[in-house]
Amino acid sequence: MAPRTKRAKKAVRLVREFLQKHMKVEDVKIDSSVNELIWSRGLRKVPSKIRVKAVKIEETVWAYTPEAEVKIEEEKKAKKKIEEEAEKEEATKEEITEEEEESKEGTEITEEAKEQEEEKKEEITEEDIIKEGSEEKQVEEKAPEKIEKEIAQEEVKEAEETEENTEEKKE
Description:
Blueprint: H1 7-23, E1 27-30, H2 32-39, E2 53-57, E3 60-64, H3 66-122, H4 126-141, H5 144-170
């Protein structure tokens, strides 16, 4: 019993007190669906009975109507879908980063191989020295005109190589 102008407020307070007593918790949250049901016929004509479901989460009790429970389940399903999509996106991002790391490792290996090849080129083996000696003898045997042409061609090649080296340095 309460004055006509305070009946809806008192009904909300009674629901809260009832849940505190029976659920043995001080913190009670009332869903908007319960509040709307109490206030559905106005401030003065409060329903005499309502059905409420209460769920205890940690130290808090949540009260809602059975009709609102269906909406809550649908929202939970939607949240799960969103979380699953986010997990899939994270998994694809991880795969992409792994592929990038593998490609970086591959490039490092190729760079090392290139360096090793350059070192091999720079090293002069005994076989190369012997070959050079035999080439010199062949050059001496050739006619002086042919020797001059070959020397000129070698100089042109060397000039081209130096130009290429300077261009690479500039880049």
